[in-house]
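USER:
Try writing one entry.

ASSISTANT:
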Amino acid sequence: MIVCLPDGLGNDALAAHQLHRHFGVDGTLQARFWTIENLRLWQRRQMFELRKGTPAYCAGGPNSLLNLAGMRYAAGVGAGIRHQQWQQAVQGTKPAQPWVTFHSRHLNEAKKYSYDQAAADFWRQPRVTAMRMHNAAVSVAPLAVDELEMMQAGPAAYQHYSALTAICGDALLTAEGHQITPATDSFDDRVTFLGHANRYLENIEDGQRLVAVAL
């Protein structure tokens, strides 16, 4: 979850035992964001859990000191490479149904269609099998089966999805205390969430502090 900190909230509110009290979530800070280059000493003091490295990772800080544009670009480039690998891995297979399709059927027909049957039907699809075989043979940068629906939408859509996810996370808590989350696990609801979250982040002030929380 990406949390937009309200003005005046002290750093002590970000301690693990304080997150639930202030934000209603249980979790810990996650070093997810990139900082801008060449942070000055006084700027470094404004960052949360700043790590060494190039780029330097941190759990958050003022919007003006975070390199969100760089994160979007890098995530999009990486997604383009993964999509090329995916296309090679699944070449010749038919489009597969995403897991949410089988899971929804199970929830609607629990007595007739068990969870085990839903899982079996999902995993036995040739395209899913091709992805699993790729991962079995290539241990570096495996293909994420849970991103199947996004990858089937095409390279551009997958790049945009990855770029927005890099900065929006899986949920967003606004400075006003409103949670922006996907309604379901479906790709359609995920896209809607990313659109809303990205528009919100595009309009925040330079001094708005952001933190990433792993739930």
